[in-house]
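Q: Here's a chain of 259 amino acids. Please give me its 3D structure as tokens.
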Amino acid sequence: MDIEEKQADLIDHFVKQASALQGSALGPLVAEATSHPSLFAFSEILTVPSILQVEGTANSVYLDVLRLFAHGTWSDYKRISGRLPQLVPEQTLKLKQLTVLTLAETNKVLPYDQLMKELDVTNVRELEDFLINECMYAGIVRGKLDQLRRCFEVQFAAGRDLRPGQLGSMIQTLSNWLATSDNLLLSIQEKIKWADSMGELDKKHGKEVQDRVEEVKKSLSLKADADFRGHEEIYSEPGGVMDYEEDRSRPKRRRHPIP
């Protein structure tokens, strides 16, 4: 079962559980969901009516925790930690994993210095162990650790929940991409047509050259035949060629001098 299928099953489980609970009873459920090692999406849980109903009540902290894990980062937690419950180690790990996903949304080359600052990691060895054991092995990112350049080159990163207002920006980005793809497709089609037309011209030119060659061959053949027949006629005519042997056997007449 891949990560998407696991996500779907877990989301369905927690949505059903949250729908059956009210008020403070949601606390343990929120803690379990945000600690689960295979759950990285929380927007569906956020839309459960019983979750939304705690807004503005003494239990609104559970809604704040869910929003933090849906859209926030480790740095965000540190800024508002005074009004949130203290995170357990599993929640801390999860939020740092989600922080890597957020950073990978906008940059596919993540410098070690930036990662160590955002994750509160003190050395490169600890950072690389975290990226390998807690991110790549978990299947949420794939990439290459470049120790020479001190960066993590992201090849794949799982998507996070959309932040409020992010949907419009994403739609615009996709629309721009679609327009660019359409223009590229049109350009490719035009080049294909040009290539086809050039191919037809090449074929036509090749046929013309071949026809001309055949005409020249035929003309040369006819000329050769005519020359050959002309020689045959010359040598076959009576008296056309003097019999040299007969001429040599004929006695020569002496011319007498005139007195």
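Q: Can you summarize the key feature?
A: The longest strand covers residues 151-157.
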